[in-house]
């Protein structure tokens, strides 16, 4: 698991040197481990420059899957710990990628501060898979950004976000004198999330009346798409939550599309009955209070 943690560390901290330093691994040992991993996968995972080693687009995709493997391993250890010691309560949460990456850490940090005896299991999936795990009882509550919710589940709004078209600063769209049209966006090959994700579903619904170009790539996380856009692979439509920092720094530009509205409602979902009690209900109430405080 060590080399996978190192790969994720490069994604999180921006360089191999920073990742190895935080992990307490000597730089030469970290470099050897990464080269061995590259040989195993048969592809370059790092861009090696005099200023430091960063992830290639392929490396970013592998880092996304490594993050899931590590999360699953962590969940396994949590389950084993829960089997060894009695706990007052357990809470299993399903969260879509956007929510899990950008909102869930803060939510769970506050929840754990108020409920230290609750064992939390987090399953990161796309929205369609979250609906499935809530429906079959694998998860106590789910958090999704899908535009619709199965009629068999109850839901409540917990937050909102916006999807935007993003490109690097040197993209031809940044020099246009007129806004991009919806038809032009639909006719462009984009980097997109996989079918079943809330981001993909929202985009597909918005463009369903237009002739669509085939995607450049389908990737499993906003982080992988964002890195590919930064690398010049192509434009994408992503949540403002996923690109806020890059837009603020100027690494990415938001392209206005005339007449296109991609606001989204983020929801908590659960099985009947309508009244959600226990730790799941406590979490949803905390999340709603947090959202309310942001708007006050």
UniProtKB/TrEMBL annotation:
Location of the HTH lysR-type domain: 1-56
Source organism superkingdom: Bacteria
Keywords of this entry: DNA-binding, Transcription, Transcription regulation
Protein's UniProt keywords contain Transcription: yes
InterPro entries noted in UniProt: LysR_HTH_N, LysR_subst-bd, WH-like_DNA-bd_sf, WH_DNA-bd_sf
PROSITE patterns found in the cross-reference section: HTH_LYSR
Residue ranges the record marks as coiled coil: none
A GO term, aspect molecular function: DNA-binding transcription factor activity
UniProt family annotation: Belongs to the LysR transcriptional regulatory family.
PANTHER family: HTH-TYPE TRANSCRIPTIONAL REGULATOR, HTH-TYPE TRANSCRIPTIONAL REGULATOR CYSL
Name recorded for this polypeptide: DNA-binding transcriptional regulator, LysR family
């Amino acid at each position: 698991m060590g080399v996978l943690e190192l790969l994720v560390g490069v994604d999180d901290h921006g360089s191999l040197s920073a990742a190895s330093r935080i992990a307490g691994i000597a730089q030469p040992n970290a470099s050897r481990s990464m080269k061995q991993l590259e040989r195993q996968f048969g592809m370059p995972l790092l861009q090696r420059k005099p200023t430091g080693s960063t992830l290639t687009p392929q490396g970013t995709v592998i880092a996304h899957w490594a993050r899931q493997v590590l999360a699953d391993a962590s969940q396994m250890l949590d389950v084993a710990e829960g089997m060894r010691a009695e706990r007052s309560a357990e809470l299993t949460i399903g969260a879509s990628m956007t929510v899990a990456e950008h909102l869930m850490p803060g939510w769970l940090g506050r929840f754990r501060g108020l409920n230290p005896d609750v064992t939390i299991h987090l399953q990161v999936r796309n929205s369609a898979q979250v609906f499935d795990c809530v429906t079959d009882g694998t998860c106590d509550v789910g958090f999704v950004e899908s535009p619709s919710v199965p009629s068999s589940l109850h839901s409540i709004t917990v937050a909102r976000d916006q999807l935007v078209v993003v490109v690097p600063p040197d993209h031809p769209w940044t020099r246009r004198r007129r806004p991009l049209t919806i038809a032009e966006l639909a006719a462009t090959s984009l980097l997109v999330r996989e079918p079943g994700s809330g981001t993909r579903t929202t985009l597909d619904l918005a463009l369903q009346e237009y002739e669509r170009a085939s995607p450049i790539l389908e990737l499993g996380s906003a982080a992988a798409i964002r890195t590919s856009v930064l690398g010049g692979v192509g434009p994408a439509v992503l949540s403002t939550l996923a690109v806020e920092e890059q837009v603020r720094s100027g690494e990415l530009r938001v392209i206005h599309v005339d007449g296109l509205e991609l606001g989204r409602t983020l929801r908590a979902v659960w099985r009947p009955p309508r009244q959600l009690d226990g730790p799941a209900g406590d979490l949803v109430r905390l999340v709603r209070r947090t959202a309310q405080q942001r708007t006050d």
